[in-house]
Design goal:
Blueprint lengths: L6 H11 L5 H12 L9 H8 L3 H10 L5 H12 L9 H10 L7 H22 L2 H12 L3 E5 L5 H11 L5 E5 L6 H5 L7 E6 L5 H12 L3 E6 L12 E4 L4 E2 L2 E2 L2 H28 L5
Parallel strand pairs: 1-2, 1-3, 3-4, 4-5
Antiparallel strand pairs: 6-7
Helix pairs in contact: 2-3, 2-4, 3-4, 6-7, 7-12, 8-12, 9-12
């Protein structure tokens, strides 16, 4: 058995050693990261087929991280993600069942309920996997930033726009990197050591967001990354990483969990800023 005590510690090891893995093992690592909540239910042949590798590659992956074989690694996820009490189908299983058994003509109301279930499943996973230490680190980064730059393109642009809007309710100087007119280089070039970049990027990870992250690193700015995997190319250079795995239905991924996390992040920051103001008022007066 591996020395890894928990599924979370295993995922941290995988992320730390990701760059040293072979191409095949990187594919498997990505699959494990994305399906950690259901890995204990899957057969090795199904995982191999999804990763387009031989089952022996799955065994090699497990052995690479100190397990005797796939079953031992799978047991670690079973201990981490199997709920107590009578087993019940999770939201993902319900959605897949609904889609598999749907009629040719599906009502708008039925499809809406499927999507609501997908959003609920994503929120459930966010609740279960929330890393409070990373959330505190994210708040601390924003609290100490002179300027906050926000980058998110395509599907993540509405999220970036929202968090930039929310942060503008504080006294912080906030810059939304919209790239309007192809101006990403000009918009990011002034970022400095006392600033923070919030980069919001999900697979396939927009090249514009990756560019902004590279510039931030070159200028020694701090980086807060909101992404779907610890194995994201943006995550490995970040000062704080918040991961979100959205639910999906009909091949469309929800934005519900990501917007929820961003709202919570803003509220936590706003409370800290207000608390600092109150403490300054209490200690800033003169004695009689």
């Amino acid at each position: 058995m591996a020395n890894t005590a928990s599924a979370e510690e295993l995922m941290q090891r995988i992320a730390a050693e990701y760059d040293t893995l072979s191409k095949q093992l990187k594919v498997i690592a990505g699959y494990v990261e994305q399906h950690r909540g259901t890995l204990m239910l899957q057969r090795i042949t199904d995982i191999a087929q999804a990763c387009e590798v031989q089952p022996s590659a799955i065994v090699r992956f497990a052995q690479r991280f100190g397990f005797a074989g796939f079953s031992d690694m799978q047991a670690l996820f079973r201990d981490a993600f199997t709920p107590q009490g009578a087993p019940q189908p999770n939201y993902r299983q319900r959605i897949q069942s609904l889609i598999a058994n749907r009629d040719e003509q599906r009502s708008a109301g039925g499809m809406t309920r499927d999507f609501i279930a997908a959003c609920q499943q994503g929120l459930q996973e966010l609740d279960a996997s929330l890393d409070e230490a990373q959330l505190e680190a994210a708040v601390e980064l924003l609290l100490n930033a002179d300027n906050i730059y926000v980058a998110g393109v395509r599907r993540m642009f509405p999220i970036a726009s929202y968090i930039a809007y929310a942060l503008q309710h504080t006294a912080k100087k906030v810059h939304l990197l919209s790239g309007l007119g192809g101006m990403f280089p000009q918009q990011i070039r002034s970022i400095g050591e006392k600033d923070v970049l919030i980069a919001i990027s999900f697979q396939p990870y927009g090249k514009e967001s990756r560019y902004c992250a590279r510039v931030a690193a070159q200028h020694k700015a701090k980086q807060l990354v909101i992404t779907d995997s610890q194995l994201s190319p943006l995550a490995r250079g970040a000062d704080a990483v918040l991961t979100v795995r959205e639910g999906s239905a009909f091949a469309f991924r929800s934005l519900t969990s990501t917007i929820c996390l961003c709202q919570a992040l803003f509220i936590a920051l706003a409370c800290r800023l207000e608390l600092n103001i109150e403490e300054t008022k209490e200690t800033g007066g003169y004695d009689d």
